[in-house]
Design a protein that fits this description.
Elements (H helix, E strand, L loop, with lengths): L3 E7 L6 H14 L3 E4 L8 E8 L2 E6 L2 E6 L3 H11 L3 E5 L3 H8 L2 H24 L6 E3 L10 H5 L5 E2 L4 E4 L2 E6 L15 H12 L8 E5 L10 E3 L9 E2 L2 E2 L1 E3 L3 H10 L3 E3 L8 E5 L2 E5 L10 E8 L2 E9 L1
Helix pairs in contact: 1-4, 6-7
Length: 316
């Protein structure tokens, strides 16, 4: 009788401390055989907390003004900000604006990203090591390449990007780059380049039909890649008063899935397109992302031999 492999997959946590803690806690909650965190690990913005005096700080966050003491209130405020994916940064009044003006704010943001991700990898070791639960990480298109360093140095788990790695009776192929986006993000390739990279990875697999494809961008026109359409000035298009949606996934990813027919495709990138779709024998999933509220969307999949036995979306 073939043994089964239970996979827990989540993606697009975008710096949310709460979502990452929930991802680690899924090891005990769902008891998977393997845990996979898809791309877009880092957050996108700094939240300045300005010092009013020796023991007093203030910030306006999501429309609410906070004024707190430096004792227990300040760490609680910073925790709330981090839980929603921002990087809290203590500073004198106006210093963040000065860094924006002199062009040094990007370097500060990357420094905060590296610090948080390094700490996350330590946390993963503390939570998963004793359980012996294998974990795999990779970057997404929104993650600066320098963040590969903390993943390479992680005390637990494997940096899976551009590798073919054994996962029980299967192999994991991970690829975090995206096709071009309107935002010119950190890690984008042409469709031709994606085709070349995926073909090279699949060429290393023993059996493409037993590959778990962890590919950040969804396949084009799969129903897992529907996002608001934008005008050239990045204004959201509307039709009849409704936001106009359209496919933004990768044609190269879709072609690779059609050609190689891996057992499953794990995707993210488009937060509002959660669901399952079949492309031939391959079941593709995008669990979606709601990191801005601290809720973690994920997927549980059970594989056995050359079949997908069970699949469900989970949220917590």
């Amino acid at each position: 009788m073939a043994r089964s492999t239970k996979v827990y997959f989540a993606t697009d946590v975008h710096g949310s401390e709460k979502c990452f803690r929930k991802f680690l806690n899924a090891g005990a909650a769902y008891r998977p055989d393997v845990m996979i965190l898809g791309g877009d690990i880092a957050g996108k913005a700094i939240q300045a907390i300005e010092q009013l005096g020796p023991d007093r700080y203030t910030t306006t966050f999501r429309g609410h003004r906070y004024e707190v003491d430096a004792g227990s209130e300040l760490p609680q405020l910073e925790r709330m900000i981090a839980d929603l994916g921002y990087y809290a940064w203590r500073c004198p009044p106006g210093e963040l604006e000065s860094k924006v003006a002199d062009g040094s704010v990007d370097a500060l943001l990357v420094e905060l990203m590296v610090d948080r991700l390094t700490r996350w990898m330590t946390m993963a070791d503390e939570r998963l090591h004793d359980r012996g639960t294998p974990a795999f990480w990779m970057l997404g298109n929104d993650d600066p390449p320098v963040l590969a360093g903390p993943l390479d140095a992680a005390p637990w788990g494997r940096h899976a990007e551009d590798r073919v790695l054994p996962v029980g009776d299967y192999e994991l192929i991970s690829f975090g780059w995206s096709n071009p986006t309107p935002w010119d993000s950190f890690r984008e390739l042409t469709e031709e380049q994606i085709t070349e990279r995926l073909d090279a990875l699949f060429a290393q697999a023993r059996d493409p039909h037993r590959v778990i494809l962890n590919c950040h961008v969804p396949p084009y026109a799969s129903g897992l890649d529907e996002a608001p359409m934008l005008d050239p000035d990045l204004t959201v298009k509307q039709s009849g008063g409704q936001v106009k949606l359209g496919p933004v996934g990768s044609t190269a990813v879709r072609a690779a899935i059609e050609r190689y027919q891996p057992i499953v495709g794990l995707h993210g990138h488009v937060h509002e397109s959660a669901g399952f779709r079949r492309i031939g024998r391959t079941l593709c999933v995008n669990p979606g992302s709601d990191y801005g509220t601290g809720e973690l969307d994920g997927a549980l999949l059970t594989l056995s031999a050359d079949k997908l036995k069970t699949h469900q979306l989970v949220r917590g």
